Amino acid sequence: MWHITCGDLAADSVRQLLGEGSGDVVRVLRDDLAVGPLADIESAPCKTRMAFWEGVWPAGLEPRPDFSGIANDAEWLTRLPDQSRPVTVWHGDSASEQLMLARVAAALEGSSLPFQEVVCGTGDSRVGTRMAVSMRAPDALAALYQPRLVEPARVAELANQWRAAVKENAAIRRWVGGRFVGEDHSRIDGELVAACGDDWMPLAGAMADVMGRCDGFFATDLFLYWRARALAQRGVIQLSDDAESQYSKVQVRRFPT
Asked: Does the predicted TM-score (pTM) go above 0.85?
Protein backbone atom coordinates (compact mmCIF):
# COMPACT_ATOMS: atom_id res chain seq x y z
CA MET A 1 0.00 0.00 0.00
CA TRP A 2 1.12 3.51 -0.85
CA HIS A 3 0.19 6.03 1.85
CA ILE A 4 0.38 9.53 0.34
CA THR A 5 0.67 12.59 2.56
CA CYS A 6 1.16 16.31 2.03
CA GLY A 7 4.38 17.29 3.79
CA ASP A 8 6.88 15.68 6.10
CA LEU A 9 5.09 16.37 9.39
CA ALA A 10 2.04 14.49 8.18
CA ALA A 11 4.27 11.69 6.89
CA ASP A 12 5.98 11.35 10.27
CA SER A 13 2.61 11.03 12.01
CA VAL A 14 1.39 8.40 9.55
CA ARG A 15 4.62 6.40 9.77
CA GLN A 16 4.36 6.37 13.55
CA LEU A 17 0.80 5.10 13.33
CA LEU A 18 1.55 2.39 10.76
CA GLY A 19 4.60 1.15 12.66
CA GLU A 20 7.50 -0.96 11.47
CA GLY A 21 7.04 -4.07 9.38
CA SER A 22 3.62 -3.15 8.00
CA GLY A 23 4.84 -3.45 4.43
CA ASP A 24 3.24 -0.10 3.65
CA VAL A 25 5.21 2.77 2.14
CA VAL A 26 4.63 6.45 2.89
CA ARG A 27 5.13 8.75 -0.09
CA VAL A 28 5.51 12.45 0.72
CA LEU A 29 4.34 15.11 -1.75
CA ARG A 30 5.91 18.31 -0.44
CA ASP A 31 4.69 20.92 -2.91
CA ASP A 32 2.30 23.49 -1.40
CA LEU A 33 -0.25 23.37 -4.20
CA ALA A 34 -2.34 26.19 -2.71
CA VAL A 35 0.02 28.84 -4.07
CA GLY A 36 1.84 29.54 -7.30
CA PRO A 37 1.26 28.66 -10.97
CA LEU A 38 0.14 25.14 -11.85
CA ALA A 39 0.12 25.34 -15.66
CA ASP A 40 3.16 23.08 -16.17
CA ILE A 41 3.03 21.09 -12.93
CA GLU A 42 2.29 17.85 -14.79
CA SER A 43 4.91 18.46 -17.47
CA ALA A 44 8.42 17.64 -16.25
CA PRO A 45 10.76 19.44 -15.78
CA CYS A 46 8.03 21.85 -14.55
CA LYS A 47 10.23 24.90 -15.18
CA THR A 48 7.60 27.52 -14.34
CA ARG A 49 6.60 25.79 -11.12
CA MET A 50 10.21 25.39 -10.07
CA ALA A 51 11.01 29.02 -10.91
CA PHE A 52 8.14 30.12 -8.66
CA TRP A 53 9.59 28.34 -5.64
CA GLU A 54 13.10 29.52 -6.46
CA GLY A 55 11.75 33.07 -6.21
CA VAL A 56 9.80 32.45 -3.02
CA TRP A 57 12.76 30.93 -1.19
CA PRO A 58 14.96 33.62 0.42
CA ALA A 59 18.34 33.78 -1.34
CA GLY A 60 20.33 33.59 1.88
CA LEU A 61 18.33 30.88 3.64
CA GLU A 62 20.17 27.57 3.93
CA PRO A 63 19.82 24.68 3.42
CA ARG A 64 18.11 25.33 0.10
CA PRO A 65 15.63 22.64 -0.99
CA ASP A 66 16.11 20.65 -4.15
CA PHE A 67 13.16 21.88 -6.16
CA SER A 68 13.67 19.18 -8.77
CA GLY A 69 11.40 17.09 -6.54
CA ILE A 70 8.50 18.89 -8.24
CA ALA A 71 9.35 17.20 -11.53
CA ASN A 72 9.98 13.89 -9.77
CA ASP A 73 6.47 14.03 -8.30
CA ALA A 74 4.96 14.65 -11.74
CA GLU A 75 6.78 11.66 -13.20
CA TRP A 76 5.92 9.42 -10.22
CA LEU A 77 2.22 10.27 -10.49
CA THR A 78 2.27 9.51 -14.20
CA ARG A 79 3.53 6.00 -13.41
CA LEU A 80 1.24 5.45 -10.41
CA PRO A 81 -1.61 3.67 -12.25
CA ASP A 82 0.83 1.17 -13.78
CA GLN A 83 2.13 -0.31 -10.53
CA SER A 84 0.48 -2.89 -8.28
CA ARG A 85 0.29 -1.18 -4.89
CA PRO A 86 -3.12 0.16 -3.78
CA VAL A 87 -3.17 3.85 -2.89
CA THR A 88 -4.36 5.61 0.25
CA VAL A 89 -4.38 9.40 0.50
CA TRP A 90 -4.42 11.06 3.92
CA HIS A 91 -5.96 14.52 3.91
CA GLY A 92 -7.27 17.27 6.14
CA ASP A 93 -8.71 20.72 5.59
CA SER A 94 -5.72 22.49 4.08
CA ALA A 95 -6.11 23.56 0.47
CA SER A 96 -2.80 21.84 -0.25
CA GLU A 97 -4.04 18.50 1.09
CA GLN A 98 -7.30 18.76 -0.83
CA LEU A 99 -5.46 19.69 -4.02
CA MET A 100 -3.13 16.74 -3.49
CA LEU A 101 -6.16 14.44 -3.15
CA ALA A 102 -7.65 15.85 -6.36
CA ARG A 103 -4.32 15.51 -8.16
CA VAL A 104 -3.98 11.84 -7.19
CA ALA A 105 -7.58 11.26 -8.29
CA ALA A 106 -6.75 12.74 -11.68
CA ALA A 107 -3.74 10.45 -11.97
CA LEU A 108 -5.84 7.39 -11.09
CA GLU A 109 -8.99 8.23 -13.05
CA GLY A 110 -9.97 5.21 -15.14
CA SER A 111 -7.52 2.95 -13.30
CA SER A 112 -8.58 -0.28 -11.61
CA LEU A 113 -6.05 0.30 -8.83
CA PRO A 114 -7.73 0.33 -5.38
CA PHE A 115 -7.87 3.95 -4.20
CA GLN A 116 -8.77 4.90 -0.63
CA GLU A 117 -8.82 8.03 1.47
CA VAL A 118 -8.37 8.70 5.18
CA VAL A 119 -10.34 11.79 6.16
CA CYS A 120 -8.61 13.68 8.97
CA GLY A 121 -10.24 17.09 8.65
CA THR A 122 -13.48 18.66 9.76
CA GLY A 123 -14.65 19.67 6.29
CA ASP A 124 -14.36 23.35 7.26
CA SER A 125 -11.27 25.26 6.14
CA ARG A 126 -11.83 28.31 8.34
CA VAL A 127 -9.33 29.31 11.00
CA GLY A 128 -10.21 27.78 14.35
CA THR A 129 -12.10 24.88 12.81
CA ARG A 130 -9.79 23.32 10.21
CA MET A 131 -7.47 20.42 10.91
CA ALA A 132 -4.54 19.18 8.86
CA VAL A 133 -3.21 15.62 9.18
CA SER A 134 -0.12 16.90 11.00
CA MET A 135 -2.30 18.72 13.55
CA ARG A 136 -3.92 15.53 14.79
CA ALA A 137 -2.66 14.00 18.03
CA PRO A 138 -1.52 10.37 17.70
CA ASP A 139 -4.60 8.93 19.45
CA ALA A 140 -6.94 11.07 17.34
CA LEU A 141 -5.15 10.05 14.15
CA ALA A 142 -5.44 6.38 15.12
CA ALA A 143 -9.19 6.79 15.62
CA LEU A 144 -9.49 8.47 12.22
CA TYR A 145 -7.61 5.69 10.46
CA GLN A 146 -10.68 4.30 8.72
CA PRO A 147 -9.80 4.07 5.03
CA ARG A 148 -12.75 4.30 2.69
CA LEU A 149 -12.90 3.57 -0.98
CA VAL A 150 -12.97 6.56 -3.32
CA GLU A 151 -15.82 5.64 -5.64
CA PRO A 152 -15.53 6.30 -9.40
CA ALA A 153 -18.01 9.21 -9.30
CA ARG A 154 -15.96 10.95 -6.60
CA VAL A 155 -12.74 10.21 -8.47
CA ALA A 156 -14.19 11.91 -11.55
CA GLU A 157 -15.38 14.92 -9.55
CA LEU A 158 -12.01 15.36 -7.85
CA ALA A 159 -10.15 14.92 -11.13
CA ASN A 160 -12.29 17.61 -12.74
CA GLN A 161 -11.57 19.96 -9.85
CA TRP A 162 -7.84 19.39 -10.30
CA ARG A 163 -7.94 19.99 -14.03
CA ALA A 164 -9.96 23.16 -13.50
CA ALA A 165 -7.45 24.45 -10.94
CA VAL A 166 -4.55 23.74 -13.29
CA LYS A 167 -6.34 25.47 -16.17
CA GLU A 168 -7.23 28.51 -14.06
CA ASN A 169 -3.59 28.80 -12.97
CA ALA A 170 -4.40 31.27 -10.19
CA ALA A 171 -1.82 32.78 -7.87
CA ILE A 172 -3.62 31.40 -4.79
CA ARG A 173 -6.22 28.67 -4.33
CA ARG A 174 -8.45 28.57 -1.27
CA TRP A 175 -10.57 25.54 -0.35
CA VAL A 176 -14.06 26.85 0.40
CA GLY A 177 -17.20 24.74 0.69
CA GLY A 178 -15.55 21.74 -0.93
CA ARG A 179 -14.39 23.75 -3.96
CA PHE A 180 -11.20 25.53 -4.95
CA VAL A 181 -11.47 29.28 -5.38
CA GLY A 182 -8.65 31.02 -7.23
CA GLU A 183 -7.49 34.59 -6.64
CA ASP A 184 -4.56 36.92 -7.24
CA HIS A 185 -2.26 38.34 -4.55
CA SER A 186 -4.28 41.47 -3.83
CA ARG A 187 -6.26 40.07 -0.90
CA ILE A 188 -3.35 38.52 0.96
CA ASP A 189 -1.16 41.56 0.22
CA GLY A 190 -3.84 43.87 1.57
CA GLU A 191 -4.10 41.82 4.76
CA LEU A 192 -0.33 41.92 5.20
CA VAL A 193 -0.19 45.69 4.73
CA ALA A 194 -3.09 46.13 7.16
CA ALA A 195 -1.18 44.10 9.77
CA CYS A 196 1.78 46.50 9.57
CA GLY A 197 1.88 49.70 11.59
CA ASP A 198 3.21 53.16 10.85
CA ASP A 199 6.04 52.56 13.33
CA TRP A 200 8.64 49.83 13.11
CA MET A 201 7.45 46.44 14.34
CA PRO A 202 8.60 42.83 13.92
CA LEU A 203 7.67 41.47 10.50
CA ALA A 204 7.04 38.11 12.18
CA GLY A 205 4.24 39.71 14.21
CA ALA A 206 2.52 41.08 11.11
CA MET A 207 2.85 37.71 9.38
CA ALA A 208 1.43 35.88 12.41
CA ASP A 209 -1.59 38.20 12.35
CA VAL A 210 -2.26 37.32 8.71
CA MET A 211 -1.79 33.59 9.37
CA GLY A 212 -4.27 33.74 12.23
CA ARG A 213 -6.99 35.19 10.00
CA CYS A 214 -6.35 33.34 6.74
CA ASP A 215 -9.33 31.15 5.88
CA GLY A 216 -9.21 28.67 3.01
CA PHE A 217 -5.48 27.94 2.94
CA PHE A 218 -2.50 27.89 5.26
CA ALA A 219 -0.40 30.96 4.45
CA THR A 220 3.14 29.85 5.35
CA ASP A 221 5.84 32.06 6.81
CA LEU A 222 8.08 31.83 3.74
CA PHE A 223 5.20 32.63 1.40
CA LEU A 224 4.30 35.72 3.43
CA TYR A 225 7.95 36.77 3.65
CA TRP A 226 8.05 36.60 -0.15
CA ARG A 227 4.95 38.77 -0.39
CA ALA A 228 6.49 41.24 2.09
CA ARG A 229 9.60 41.52 -0.09
CA ALA A 230 7.41 42.10 -3.14
CA LEU A 231 5.47 44.83 -1.32
CA ALA A 232 8.72 46.45 -0.20
CA GLN A 233 9.99 46.49 -3.79
CA ARG A 234 6.78 48.29 -4.80
CA GLY A 235 7.25 50.89 -2.07
CA VAL A 236 4.14 49.87 -0.11
CA ILE A 237 5.98 48.82 3.06
CA GLN A 238 9.53 49.20 4.34
CA LEU A 239 11.72 46.39 5.64
CA SER A 240 14.56 47.23 8.00
CA ASP A 241 16.84 44.60 6.56
CA ASP A 242 16.16 42.44 3.53
CA ALA A 243 19.07 40.06 3.71
CA GLU A 244 16.75 37.37 2.37
CA SER A 245 17.60 34.99 5.15
CA GLN A 246 15.88 35.11 8.54
CA TYR A 247 12.65 37.09 8.56
CA SER A 248 12.63 36.86 12.38
CA LYS A 249 15.22 39.64 12.46
CA VAL A 250 13.35 41.94 10.07
CA GLN A 251 11.35 44.99 11.16
CA VAL A 252 8.55 46.39 9.03
CA ARG A 253 6.44 49.51 8.76
CA ARG A 254 4.10 51.03 6.22
CA PHE A 255 5.88 53.27 3.77
CA PRO A 256 5.74 56.85 5.09
CA THR A 257 3.47 59.13 3.10
From this structure: yes
In tens, the pLDDT along 170-208 reads 999 999 999 999 999 999 999 999 999 999 999 999 999
Asked if 185 and 242 touch (Cβ cutoff 8 Å), the reply is no
Q: Label residue 136 exposed, middle or buried (CB < 10 Å: 0-12, 13-18, 19+).
A: buried
Question: Under a CB-based contact definition with an 8 Å cutoff, are residues 206 and 185 in contact?
Answer: no
Which runs of consecutive H residues, i.e. helices, occur in the chain? 8-18, 47-56, 69-79, 95-108, 138-144, 152-168, 186-195, 203-211, 221-233
What is the DSSP secondary structure assignment for residue 148, as one 8-state letter?
A: E
Q: What is the largest CA-CA distance in the chain?
A: 64
Instruction: Report the CATH fold assignment for 2-176.
Output: Dna Topoisomerase Vi A Subunit; Chain: A, domain 2 (3.40.1360)
Contact assessment for residue 203 and residue 228, using Cβ atoms and an 8 Å cutoff: yes
Residue type, 39: A
